[in-house]
């Protein structure tokens, strides 16, 4: 059965390591006959949550007019969600945090999805584990989320350093089997 897969890439670099892993996942998903779409947060206009609480009450809308309303629609339509980020100070970066905060208007509507995490870090295992834990804290606020797999790589500083690694094969296989 074909699935709708939404990949959220928070890498500020178009060919950053977590972004490249997203592409490998997407190639696998497309090869399996799924519909896959990647959203690069750095290419979108996404304002910070202002804490105005206008979204409270189940309306599913934010008063801000930016690219998040379209992303909300994509996310709600998806069967599978892939969250990808480089590690900054042992957690996901600011672009991912802003994205997560702006899901407040639809958080009660995000349900019954498979979720994959993609994490790239220059440092060792500890930053990856704490970043994945941060993703789990977020997805734990949602209903019926099924964590499927974490694809991660450490020790990659340079843009494109992930190419040719086992993480690339793992990302492709995860997409193929999503």
Please tag this protein with its features:
single chain; 6-stranded mixed beta sheet; globular
Protein described:
The chain is α/β, with parallel strands linked by helices and 178 residues long. 33% of the residues lie in helices and 22% in strands. The chain has 5 helices and 6 strands. It has helices at 17-31, 68-77, 94-101, 125-139, 166-176, and strands spanning 4-9, 35-40, 80-88, 91-92, 114-121, 146-154. Strands 1, 2, 3, 4, 5 and 6 form a 6-stranded mixed sheet that branches. α1 runs parallel beside α5 (166-176). The termini are close together. The mean pLDDT is 95.
Q: Distance between the terminal alpha carbons, to the nearest Å? A: 10 Å
As a percent range, the share of strand residues is 15-25%
- Which whole number gives the mean pLDDT? 95
Largest β-sheet summary: 6 strands, mixed
How would you name the oligomeric state of the polypeptide chains in this document? single chain
Individual helix count: 5
Which blocks of ≥5 consecutive residues have pLDDT under 50? none
SSE order and pairing:
Blueprint: E1 4-9, H1 17-31, E2 35-40, H2 68-77, E3 80-88, E4 91-92, H3 94-101, E5 114-121, H4 125-139, E6 146-154, H5 166-176
Parallel strand pairs: 1-2, 1-3, 3-5, 5-6
Antiparallel strand pairs: 3-4
Helix pairs in contact: 1-5
